[in-house]
Design brief:
Elements: H1 13-24, H2 28-37, H3 43-50, E1 64-72, E2 75-82, H4 88-100, E3 106-109, E4 114-121, H5 126-142, H6 145-153, E5 157-165, E6 173-181, H7 188-206, H8 214-217, E7 220-227, E8 234-242, H9 250-269, H10 271-291, H11 296-307, E9 317-322, E10 325-333, H12 347-355, H13 361-384, H14 388-404, H15 408-420, H16 425-437
Antiparallel strand pairs: 1-2, 3-8, 4-6, 4-7, 5-6, 8-10, 9-10
Helix pairs in contact: 1-2, 4-13, 5-7, 9-10, 10-11, 10-13, 14-15, 14-16
Bound molecules: (R)-mevalonate.
(R)-mevalonate binds near residues 280, 283 and 383.
């Protein structure tokens, strides 16, 4: 059995690789080859990547693709997407083209409020705690002014600090519930630094508050951290058109519109379907979030909490038919940044931002929401018409051919063949064997 290792992080990259391949792989020579093949020959670039995290032993590549022709508020975008799933970029591009011919996407920012909380325990009289909070509120802000001054200069900063009594959910539990405006920064570091300062001031001042008895003076700070649930950092994206413009023939268009409405109604009513429906939305959202160096785990957590905000997990998109107009829309909570973090370090992320014409955080929220809406439209459209497998398997065909070790010429022949035939896994393997035997 492999023994635990002390001081792994202090080893050089080569030593780390030696240790991992000799202890955890069967063929250490080929494992080493794979790890080193993914290194970048540009040593500065490699060093940059090595230093993003601890214990880097190689790079992990994902495809970086472009979905062009997104008309958003009358401006044309080509959207960069980093994703491994074969059909996502194709579906996004298809939906973009579809809506390009029907007026494009319209978006609105509904709010930009970020949230952070100091969680603390207090045993004593709540009315005294309220008095203390009133007396200390301005000091909370002023003692954090070193942290906030640059953000304030640019028009952001602390928006509000509230005292919240949470004792109905947990004995003795209270919060400083704080809201912030962080402009083009995602704001995690800014918010967490402010919160930690609030906590310090709050605890120290409590010790001198004359109305408190000894137990009350002893406020116990549990933790200070931003919340990734940002229901008031919200963006809306929508598309609409007269029903008859949805397809070439009016009867088909009416049926299609009705089916889209039914599909969304099912995703609203039924959590199993809602999760998959929303997963399709996140195919688009995460791909842009990753390409632009934002935190997809934060976005995922916040978006799914929002999907359950009414007490039951439900669809993030909505659809209606009103006076002959089909409308399809989404509202997403998205705390994003276009400055700081990876956005100013990672060369591909910087390029993605340039391709998006250097968006502000608000513009990026709109682009990401559009990518999610487009992806959902494409998925549900396939589901209620041809079924999803037709498109999926066409895109997956190349993965299967690569697994089989097909040559470029064989790939061409089989891609042509499967333009007219259903590309199931078995059918591809059969066709490949037949071709090799010919
Ligand atoms: C697959 O990645 C996403 C879909 O399952 C989404 C959906 O069912 O709406 C196709």
């Amino acid at each position: 059995m492999t023994k635990p290792i002390q001081g792994f992080s202090k080893l050089t990259k080569e030593e780390k690789i030696d240790w991992i391949v000799s202890n955890y792989t069967q063929d250490s020579k080929s494992a080493r080859l794979i790890l080193t093949r993914y290194w970048n020959t540009d040593t500065d670039l490699q060093k940059l990547h090595d230093e993003f995290i601890e214990n880097t032993i190689t790079n992990y590549y994902l495809p970086f693709g472009i979905a062009p022709n997104f008309l958003i508020n009358d401006k044309l975008y080509a959207i960069p997407m980093a994703i491994e799933e074969s059909s996502v970029v194709a579906a996004a591009s298809k939906a973009a083209k579809f809506w390009l011919d029907r007026g494009g996407f319209k978006t609105t920012i509904l709010g930009t409020e970020k949230i952070g909380q100091v969680h603390f325990m207090f045993t004593g009289d709540f009315s005294k705690l309220k008095n203390f909070f009133k007396s200390v509120t301005s000091k909370l802000a002023s003692e954090a002014s070193d942290i906030t001054k640059n953000m304030v200069k640019r028009g952001g900063g602390i928006s509000k600090i509230e005292l919240r009594d949470k004792t109905t959910v947990l004995d003795n539990y209270y919060q400083l519930h704080c809201t912030f405006e962080t402009l083009d920064a995602m704001g995690a570091n800014f918010i967490n630094s402010c919160l930690e300062q609030f906590a310090k001031t709050f605890k120290t001042e409590a010790q001198h508050f004359s109305e408190f008895n000894d137990a009350e003076k002893n406020i116990e700070i549990v933790m200070s951290i931003l919340s990734n649930y940002v229901p008031n950092c919200l963006v809306r994206a929508e598309v609409s058109c007269p029903i008859e413009e949805l397809t070439d023939d009016t009867e088909n268009a009416i049926n299609f519109a009705k089916k889209m409405i039914q599909a969304v109604a099912i995703a609203k009513a039924e959590p199993h379907r809602a999760v998959t429906h929303n997963k399709g939305i996140m195919n688009g959202v995460d791909a842009v979030i990753l390409a632009t160096g934002n935190d997809f785990r934060a976005v995922e957590a916040g978006v799914h909490a929002y999907a359950a905000k009414d007490g039951k997990y439900s669809s993030l998109t909505h659809a209606s038919i009103d006076q002959g107009i089909f409308k399809f829309w989404i509202e997403l909570p998205l705390a994003l940044g276009t400055v700081g973090g990876l956005t100013s370090l990672h060369p591909l992320v910087k390029l993605a931002m340039e391709i998006l014409q250097k968006p502000s955080a608000q513009e990026l929220m709109q682009i990401v929401a559009v990518a999610g809406l487009a992806q959902n439209f494409a998925a549900v459209r396939s589901l209620v018409t041809t079924g999803i497998q037709e498109g999926h398997m066409k895109m997956h065909l190349m993965n299967i051919l690569n697994q089989l070790g097909a040559t470029d010429q064989e790939k061409d022949t089989l891609t042509n063949h499967f333009k007219k035939n259903a590309a199931t896994h078995n059918a591809v393997v059969e066709a490949f064997k037949n071709l090799r035997n010919q």
